[in-house]
Amino acid sequence: MGTRFPVEGDAVRLFLQWGKGLHAQHLDMDLSARIALADGKVSECAYYSLQGVGAKHSGDIQHIPEMVGTAEYIELSLPELEAAGSRYVTFTCNAYTTSALSPNLVVGWMDSAYPMKISEKKGVAYDPSCVQHMVRISEGNLAKGLVFGVLDVAKREIIWLEMSFTAQTMRGADATSIEALLHKLEAKLSVGELLDIKAKAQHLINVENAEDADEAYPYEWALNPADVTKLLNQ
After folding, report:
1. Is the dihedral of CA 162, 138, 25, 17 positive or negative?
2. 11 contacts 79 by C-beta, under 8 angstroms
3. Which residues contact 31 (CB under 8 A, 6 or more apart)?
4. Do residues 3 and 162 lie in contact, with contact meaning Cβ atoms separated by under 8 Å?
5. HEC states along 176-207?
């Protein structure tokens, strides 16, 4: 959580795909974007407001076809967002008709230069190679809603988040908490920066292979806040 991705070009396409491998049924998942404007004003792009400031929604999909799944997407225009004085755009997905997000739901963003077609009968079609970042929601990570990213318009970068919320629409996502988390992320060191500081302070040499190291800090270690905190206190 908190990983930053630079935005290339003037557009971003958010996408939400769900229902693959399930029988045809009513299963309503929603993709939304909350655009923070100047003077505390907000614009929303969601199933109830398909056009927002610098944002356009593909349409509300409430049923999935047999086994293939379906999708929603939102096109974001960075020049329009910049012209409107937008600071952040918050990306959310939520389960409208069920108590939790659908297992195997996929959410993220992709290259908007390539078309994405959605059919209520045939499902969704797009080129997976165009996906720039995505996460698949697992059985152990189900919530009513999820804030999965924030676009920093001025910096033209996306901060990946996984912040759950319990409301039926994106209006239940606490904007104050999201802002506080972003400020915290901006203020703190990354794990990589922390390890570099440790190496310099203790006159250690970074090596490419774990087999050659006296101390190893793998990806699994970085996911454990208690272990990282121990390093801070050394």
Report:
1. positive
2. no
3. 14, 15, 16, 46, 57, 72, 73, 74, 91, 92, 93, 107
4. no
5. HHHHHHHHHHHHCCCHHHHHHHHHHHCCCCCC
Q: Which of 34, 132, 140, 167 is nearest to 88 (CA)?
A: 34
d(Cα 150, Cα 183) in Å, to the nearest integer?
12
Q: What's phi and psi for 214, nearest 5 deg?
A: -80, -30
Is residue 165 a contact partner of residue 144, using CB atoms and an 8 Å limit? Answer: yes
- Tally Cβ neighbours within 10 Å of residue 216: 11
Q: For residue range 95-137, what is the model confidence (pLDDT) as tens digits?
A: 887 777 776 788 999 988 888 888 878 888 777 788 888 887 7
- pLDDT for 83 beyond 90: yes
**pLDDT tens digits along 183-215:** 665 665 567 766 776 777 667 788 878 778 888
Is pTM beyond 0.85 here?
A: no
- Crossing angle of helices 225-232 and 191-201, rounded to 10°: 30
